[in-house]
Task: inverse folding
């Protein structure tokens, strides 16, 4: 762990997951949403990195938004919307399959 982030591998995407106690839910930035706002390739400039659905279990922003969308409001007023997705967490010792985590599909920031 470096500062308040830990590097993790979700379905082959390296994500610098922030360790934060302001929420009970963990979520990843969905690359399709992020790059729709900031341009193709912009995820490489995001400190956390982005998650893209793997080829063997594809998704896009429209299919994600067709699911139940959850909303979290933080004390500073920031609002995040996310959907749940089952992903694979790959560590040096094992692979955890079907781990449910949120994919951020909107943020007020």
Result:
């Amino acid at each position: 762990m470096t500062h308040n982030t830990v590097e993790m591998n979700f379905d082959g995407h390296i994500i610098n997951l922030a360790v934060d106690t302001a929420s009970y839910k963990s979520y990843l930035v969905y690359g399709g949403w992020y790059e729709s706002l900031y341009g193709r390739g912009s995820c490489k400039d995001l400190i956390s990195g982005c998650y893209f659905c793997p080829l063997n279990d594809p998704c896009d922003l429209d299919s994600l938004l067709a699911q139940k969308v959850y909303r979290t409001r933080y004390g500073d007023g920031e609002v995040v919307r996310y959907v749940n997705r089952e992903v694979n967490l790959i560590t040096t010792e094992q692979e955890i399959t079907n781990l449910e985590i949120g994919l951020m599909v909107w943020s007020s920031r």
Q: What stands out?
A: The beta strands are 5-10, 13-18, 27-29, 70-73, 79-90, 95-107. The chain has a mean pLDDT of 90. The two ends are 25 Å apart (CA to CA). Residues 33 and 105 are 6 Å apart (CA to CA).
